[in-house]
Model the fold of this input.
Amino acid sequence: MKDLNISLKQLRYYLTAAKHKSLRQAAKELQISQPSLSAQLKLLEEALGVALFERTRGGIMLTPLGKELIPESKAAVDAAQAIVEAANYSTSGPSGTFKLGVSPSLGPYSLPWILPALRHEFTNVKFFVKEEAPLSLVDGLTDGSYDLIFTPLPVDDPTLTVVPLFREPLFLVVNANHPLAKYEHIEPSQLSGLDILTIEEHHHFFKQVESLSQRFNAHLLLDYEGSSLDAIRQMVYMEMGATFLPALYIRSEIRDRDELHVLTIKGESIYRSHALVWRNSSPLRGFYRELAEFFHLRIKEEFDETVIMM
Amino acid sequence: MKDLNISLKQLRYYLTAAKHKSLRQAAKELQISQPSLSAQLKLLEEALGVALFERTRGGIMLTPLGKELIPESKAAVDAAQAIVEAANYSTSGPSGTFKLGVSPSLGPYSLPWILPALRHEFTNVKFFVKEEAPLSLVDGLTDGSYDLIFTPLPVDDPTLTVVPLFREPLFLVVNANHPLAKYEHIEPSQLSGLDILTIEEHHHFFKQVESLSQRFNAHLLLDYEGSSLDAIRQMVYMEMGATFLPALYIRSEIRDRDELHVLTIKGESIYRSHALVWRNSSPLRGFYRELAEFFHLRIKEEFDETVIMM
DNA sequence: TAAAGGTGAAAGCTTTTTCCTATCACAAGA
DNA sequence: TCTTGTGATAGGAAAAAGCTTTCACCTTTA
Done:
């Protein structure tokens, strides 16, 4: 990069002197002494190697080149002013485009109810939302691909701040023609031998369903893994097996109870927890705490009958 | 004007740090020490009152606002760079739009033969040409309305540099039906009582024709003054009187010798002189001397049979 | 596990830049 | 002749920019 030996101050001085056609008047406006102004304009002329002004006893006048360099000088000073103003505006509230990473089993069934209110509350804040599996979310947060993630737990990294927000119940879902569909609540023993479908291995959800299957002696189907909750819902609909689905998903996507039946297991409370997570080193961590509180309130307002607040 | 407390250097440092995501790498590119860069970025952040970077042990990353201020920062630095480049370009030759003032009795009959060659020779120089009576030209040069004037002499102002270029003969012009039209040369006594037309009083030309009329005992018509040389040529054509016209005007505008007759006066050499004039205080006076030489050469090439070089 | 190598920050010092006051040189106007 | 206006010059003080050295902390390698 070519060395720039001119300063914004010098450009301001030049524009002001051009305006007044008098070094004394300009110095007065700038609130510096006239010899200082004279010296700085001389330095600017020397740095550029050209004469910008013609000095006469009646004052100064711009040379043709001096006139020609006015627009670019004004552009530089105006751009700097815009930076200062944007920053001033920003100190009165957070600003910019934030990269928010979410789990695909959580984001689509919660964020549409949160983001509009968020945009209303923090008007200069934009979110660029991307879905990715939770393990990838944590990696992305660590390496700076995301500023913030909204993800199922667990997250075990001491460089990250984890703010748990709520617990989301998981329910057993079977086809309406399934023998278990005649019940609202079943005994754990009734799960024995049941074919259980789930989504891909790198999701926390997979591990949880695997654990549940082992616990209830059910049979976890590994040959027909789904790529999303929608996919496994379709498989249940096609009588390929049963599955566990999160409450927010059920709330959002399962309306036709003639096709799919939702059950609870007696004496069992099955949940997964969700949190907002950010890097400890972020200078915006104060704002992220505010955001976490906002999320918490919004989720409470919107999903209080579905989830358990933390 | 709001006080700008950020510098172009700081903006360059910020852009370079953003590019490298490492203060050490950026400092290396900028050829300053890392602690200096760190300190300057901190000062920039303090001046703006916002965090532009998040610091981690693996390096730095931009905050959302840090990202948002990149385009304006680049705009400021690029504008300054453009100033430096324009100035560098300019030191390899004069540049800008020059305000050239010319007399209406000279400019139209000379500049069309000079300006194209001038543009070819000085490619970054533009002329904004304006015609005005010579006394107004001098006033305009003194007050800065013109950078340069091309004018008939005399010019008597010690703050101005006057470079005489050539002498332009004046010829007597009569209608082709006039008794004097049968001659190519006449005696001074033949002018006695002749009606003489001229242009307005505030032109040097008026004073010269007035002086000639008195000298040859001719009758200067004051009731029918022309506003231009074209106007008095028409009056001569309409047999309202005779007139003196400059050689360049005759060369350019009088082709039909069946209508108007051009005479010389025996034993008399009648001229007016023309010069380029600029302010002594102009930092571009070196360039104006060059220009004067170029005018001189060009006039010699184009008008050598019409005028007398000085 | 220890050593090496990477990160940005803090501290103290030197150099450079920016700004000040006082004055000068020159001109125009009263 | 004096007053008032212009921009420039000279010398000094204060602020800013940059340096080297070192620190704290982490990761990687042998």
